[in-house]
Write a structure and sequence with these properties.
With 95 residues, the chain is mainly β. It contains two helices and five strands. 11% of the residues lie in helices and 48% in strands. A five-stranded antiparallel β-sheet has the order 1-2-3-4-5, with no helix packed on it. Strand 4 and strand 5 form a beta hairpin.
Amino acid sequence: AFDVLEYEIERNLAGDDPWRDVYVNYRQSRGANLQAGHFRVPFSLDEHTGATNRDFVYRSLAARQLAPGRDTGVMLHGRVIGRRVRYELGAFRQD
């Protein structure tokens, strides 16, 4: 909506928790975004990078064992210093 609001609704057809991603993202600028809803917890770059953008097909063992997955919460994120530095700071219900 007017290049300020973005949303995503994604659902699994099977499983205990059918909702994968249900969130709204408010983008004031590239340096300041506020996201709220049920989505992937910002834990590691390995978890947020898609398979087509990685050198190896599989994620690291540490990321697979320690990554919390998805949770309901709020996250402030963005890119600063000429898009060279990316940050993600969140507060979540369980993780």
